[in-house]
Amino acid sequence: QAAKAFFDALPSLLLVIIVMGGILGGIFTATEDSAIAVVYTFILSVLIYREVKWRDLPKLILESVVMTSIVLLLIGFSVGMSWA
Prior knowledge:
This protein is an all-alpha fold. The chain has 2 domains: 1-52; 54-84. It has helices at 2-24, 30-48, 57-82. Helix 1 packs antiparallel against helix 2. The longest helix has 26 residues, at 57-82. The protein starts with a helix and ends with a helix. It is a multi-pass membrane protein. Part of the tripartite ATP-independent periplasmic (TRAP) transport system.
């Protein structure tokens, strides 16, 4: 049972190796690495694990845009308040 759980989690565990190996090996920068991690995670969730359906993608993208805009607004307002 432990071996099955390990092999089921192996694709997700490879993300750590890809990220650390890419940065430490000088293959790509941290910014490029984040894009590669997003694409790899997208492939895992949609194609490998099938946790996200194609029809749910527009809703998920909209939710992530809203969350990102909230965070950026908070950062912008905090920078504005720090000038005072």
